[in-house]
């Protein structure tokens, strides 16, 4: 959870999908205690709030039905598949500008490694 003060009356709180209801309740308790009021019960708020989507927004067609979505189960397999797709296309890399293509292909994978680090991948600045 990232918390920052915007001004003397406003605080910004940012969190991701790994935060549980218990975490939010604790945060709500901290803020309520700091201003001297009783914290609302998050479970009561959840029960009293309609979170359902209108039927006009609900998906009616199946998703991820193409076999490719269930065929590749590792990053290596997925990269090989993407490379095979790329190989079928005429591009600057294969036709006009072949120099540097190795670096361009390797950068994407090597640049993604820091995202697996908690200090980078779990950072949520907003």
Give a structural overview.
It is a single chain. It is built from six helices and two strands, in the order E-E-H-H-H-H-H-H. Strands 1-2 form a two-stranded antiparallel ribbon. The termini are close together. By secondary structure, it is mainly alpha-helical. A hairpin with a 2-residue loop joins strand 1 (2-7) and strand 2.
SSE arrangement:
Layout: E1 2-7, E2 10-14, H1 21-35, H2 42-48, H3 68-71, H4 75-87, H5 101-112, H6 118-121
Antiparallel strand pairs: 1-2
Q: Which terms would index this structure?
A:
44% helix, 126 residues
Rg for CA atoms: 23 Å
DSSP E strands, number: 2
Summarize the helix and strand pattern as letters. EEHHHHHH
Structural class: mainly alpha
Write down the overall mean pLDDT. 83
- Note the overall shape: elongated
The major β-sheet equals: 2 strands, antiparallel
Brief rundown of the structure:
The protein is 44% helix and 9% strand. By secondary structure, the chain is mainly alpha-helical.
């Amino acid at each position: 959870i990232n918390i920052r003060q915007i001004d003397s009356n406003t605080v910004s709180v940012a969190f991701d999908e790994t935060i549980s209801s218990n975490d939010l309740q604790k945060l709500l308790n901290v803020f309520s205690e700091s201003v001297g009021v009783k914290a609302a019960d998050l479970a009561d708020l959840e029960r009293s709030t309609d979170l359902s989507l209108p039927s006009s927004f609900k998906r009616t067609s199946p998703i991820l039905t193409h076999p490719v979505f269930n065929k590749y189960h590792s990053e290596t397999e997925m990269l090989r598949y993407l490379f095979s797709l790329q190989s079928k296309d005429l591009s600057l890399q294969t036709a006009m500008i072949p120099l540097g293509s190795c670096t361009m292909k390797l950068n994407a994978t090597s640049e993604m490694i820091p995202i697996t680090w908690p200090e980078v991948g779990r950072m949520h600045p907003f």
